[in-house]
Amino acid sequence: MSLEWIGDAETARGVTERRFDIERAGRTVPGVLWEPEARTPETPLVLLGHGGSGHKRQDYVLAVARRFARRGIAAAAIDGPVHGDRRAGGPSDGTAEMVEFSRMWRDDPAMTDQMVADWRAVLDALQAPDVLGAGPVGWWGLSMGTILGLPVVAAEPRISAAVLGLMGLTGPSKDRLRTDAALVTCALLFLVQWDDELFARDRAFDLFTEFGTTDKRLHANPGSHVQVPAEEFRASVAFLAKHLSVGTAREGQR
Amino acid sequence: MSLEWIGDAETARGVTERRFDIERAGRTVPGVLWEPEARTPETPLVLLGHGGSGHKRQDYVLAVARRFARRGIAAAAIDGPVHGDRRAGGPSDGTAEMVEFSRMWRDDPAMTDQMVADWRAVLDALQAPDVLGAGPVGWWGLSMGTILGLPVVAAEPRISAAVLGLMGLTGPSKDRLRTDAALVTCALLFLVQWDDELFARDRAFDLFTEFGTTDKRLHANPGSHVQVPAEEFRASVAFLAKHLSVGTAREGQR
Fold first, then answer.
1. By the CB < 8 Å criterion, does A214 face chain B?
2. What value of ipTM does the predicted structure carry?
3. pLDDT of B248 over the 50 cut
4. Structure pTM?
């Protein structure tokens, strides 16, 4: 496993962004790291799982990452399978990604194991003493970021708080999601869109029931799959910031 | 209608508490007002509906009232029917209150109308220029505080934000709750206890669906009817504080 920085770091409004690649088991894992201006020896880190058809730097991932960084928390995102820089030529319009991901989700259960291994390699690399060090770790990922992220949260004892949601006990990996949900023991905020047209709220409620942790709460908002309100993005960032024990840094005005 | 202050005001840690009675249509409505130290010409006011078997000054009502007052927001509570000082001899152990309330809920639909009228009289009296003045108004009430409070929120255009919950589309006033829910147009936070043994979560979800306002969100937490976690009490106070436009006052450490 090796970490390679790609290009120069860029700093804007107190947030430093750096592209990286990690080589693992013959795969290249393309990622982005966002770092706060004020670093501590144990800067917390949030892993961001993007949504289906998006990529590691899609608008809402970037916005959430910057929010974390402005609260003194580093954030990292990698491209999902067949997404972003894992594609020859980079991100497409999203349609091809969704079609190809759906096929892999159905036909290739090892995809999930590979993504879990990718994320654990990223965490190992970023927690190196000369990068971030071994501070508290959180997970933030909705929809595909839960399909592929819930297994990461279940497998990774370093993750002490997670935001998941826009997903239910349904789809090709339903049984795995149920099994993994039972293994989650960390603090959890789970988001539901009341009128979700992709993953019905009743299935989301089923999944919420299965989480093994007692430190869980569910926030539901009206609207479709993509209509998560701004206040819930803010609340989810605040939730992880609180649980990763960053009490002093305050979010800037946006 | 007349407002009479009972006994002396008492101030502790920046919160002034005053007992009052309001005479309305031959009824005495016993209440408590909590006022912040720093008053403005239009101090916001939150109306607090207590739970079944409790009273206007039960522990969690008192705690919530003080939280509001420390954020610069006045709060008022009155006893529900057959509760608190509406009983000869004052509050009982709660059992008699529950039994008698359940009977009235079943047999006397006018009970709800009477409580709505009581609350509107309280609001009129407290918004007098020599008391609080006509600032923004919120509602906070769970369980019986929703059974009797949702009709108040539906009827009272002065209420611009509400916290309701621990209740569902069920019980003797189910049809009225559905009708009133559709009339709610203000900002709403609705609380659900995942393992509520009194009002099943599925019925709570039914009620949430019926609210007419699009500015609504649902927060669910594990546990029984009475196990609303401290963080949700805090969040519900913060929600109303935000919506009643009190941006400057910050809650003290508790």
1. yes
2. 0.92
3. no
4. 0.94
